[in-house]
Amino acid sequence: MDQSGDFGFGTQIRKSPYFDATVRWGAKAFSVYNHMYIPRDFGDPEQNFWNLVNDAILCDVAVERQVEVTGPDAFRFIQMLTPRDLSKMAVGQCKYVMITNAAGGILNDPILLRLEENRFWLSLADSDILLWAQGVAVFAGMDVMIGEPDVSPLQLQGPKSGEVMKALFGESILDLRYYWLRKADLDGIPLIVSRTGWSSELGYEIYLQDGSRGDELWEKVMTAGKPIGLKPGHTSSIRRIEGGMLSYHADADIHTNPYELGLDRLVNLDMDADFIGKEALRRIRDEGVSRKQVGLVIEGTALKGPNTTFWPVHRNGAEIGKVTSAVYSPRLKQNIALAMIQTEFEPIGTEVEVVTTSGATQAVVVERPFYDPKKSLAAASR
Question: Measured by CB atoms within 10 angstroms of the end CB, which terminus of the chain is less buried, N or C?
């Protein structure tokens, strides 16, 4: 790959402030997410997984673009976007939220950060919520300003990530609690640091607030982490499927609602605040859903990589749903998958058939997440 900047599809796909650094450090291929390049290949994905679960990896996730909402009505506006009750959300806290449309469909599942009383960031999955929020604001009658700030996150994930953070920021950073944030400064580089991440491991996200210093920040983190075994990497499909974490467009989309995903805890229909989709979600709750997300273990030889199409799921010759994400877990020594199937077949132990690219294969419904169901690794204090 040409490191001079000639790689790519043109200026309509944006490069992150870390792009050149990731190429220097071995990124071999990229995909597109939120209209930006994201590194998806630093070599063997299984080795990337072991680097993550045994040591630590640094990932360029600047594609998690931020929507900033400020102004006197910022809290009321944010609450209108999501069915999760935010009434007890403190300044400095983060929350995993769903953004729903009028039909109760999921438009995005971002991390919400409350930086100040009237300043919020939505750290996005892969969809254009900036446009949605600006459109909603036109008709909301609220005093808010909505835009995309100069913010580019990195993910530092893995059991040794705390040691790297300590080397960068000192002992006090280890006091940062799970799903909380704080302002930080690294040799004059303005940052927000949070105890969050898309890995189900202990981890941090480092939000750069000056895109001109991306290369410098990447090198500082890698230098600090070298003695500890830090490696450059990419978000691990293996680990996120083990942890039952959603990938938007795969496991959820505009036609999926929180009840189908078993995420009832993210919906509060009893709060006084109104939100988009409230009536639809009340109706869905009362009527019940016809399909649910389940975990599957798929028999047969190890899958060569994640599925790139939705695989049909059959029962007694009839199609009952689809596999949305599948991968071989070298730790569990099993092919594991997330699937959306008819509710009558969701009980643990139900036997089904998955039609993979190699043909029909037996599978069984199992509990999800597949590993560390209480997320004790991600929430553990260091």
Answer: N
Quick: pLDDT tens for 37-76. Answer: 999 999 999 999 999 999 999 999 999 999 999 999 999 9
* Contact yes or no for 83/269 (Cβ under 8 A): yes
Strand partners, 365: 296
- Look up the CATH number of the domain holding residue 337: 2.40.30.110
- Domain extent, residue 336, equals 290-382
Instruction: Please give the Cα distance from 166 to 161 (Å, whole number).
Output: 9
Shared domain for 319 and 338, answered yes or no, is: yes
111 and 157 inside one domain: no
Within this chain, do residues 160 and 35 fall inside the same structural domain, yes or no? Answer: yes
Phi and psi (nearest 5°) for 233?
A: -160, -175
Q: What is the DSSP string of 80-106?
A: HH-SS--TTPPTTBEEE--EE-TTS-E
Does residue 93 lie in a domain region? yes
